[in-house]
Amino acid sequence: MELPTPVKYDGRICFAIEYFATEEDAKVYAKHVRDRGDTYNGGWSHGAPCGRATSFDHVDKETGQQLYAVTIA
């Protein structure tokens, strides 16, 4: 199965966030991230598993598009 392509990327110190156009794409990619064992690297959440992160979902200010977040290592 081919993985969905993120539409936006946000790099951070301890993790990164990839944003997807649909929630279904985000869920598929989150499963891939969990399966490969990505975890946060440092900070308060050090060692916590990456994956679907609804707290980072938002409407993009430039496009007006709803984006769905997946954290990655």
Secondary structure: elements and pairs:
Blueprint: E1 8-11, E2 16-20, H1 23-36, E3 58-59, E4 66-72
Antiparallel strand pairs: 1-2, 2-4, 3-4
Explain what you see:
With 73 residues, the protein is of the alpha+beta class. The protein has one domain. 19% of the residues lie in helices and 25% in strands. The protein has 1 helix and 4 strands, in the order ββαββ. Strands 1-2-4-3 form a 4-stranded antiparallel beta sheet. β1 and β2 form a beta hairpin. The radius of gyration is 12 Å and the shape is globular.
Task: Summarize this structure as a short list of keywords or feature phrases.
single chain, 73 residues, alpha+beta, four-stranded antiparallel sheet, 1 helix, 19% helix, 25% strand
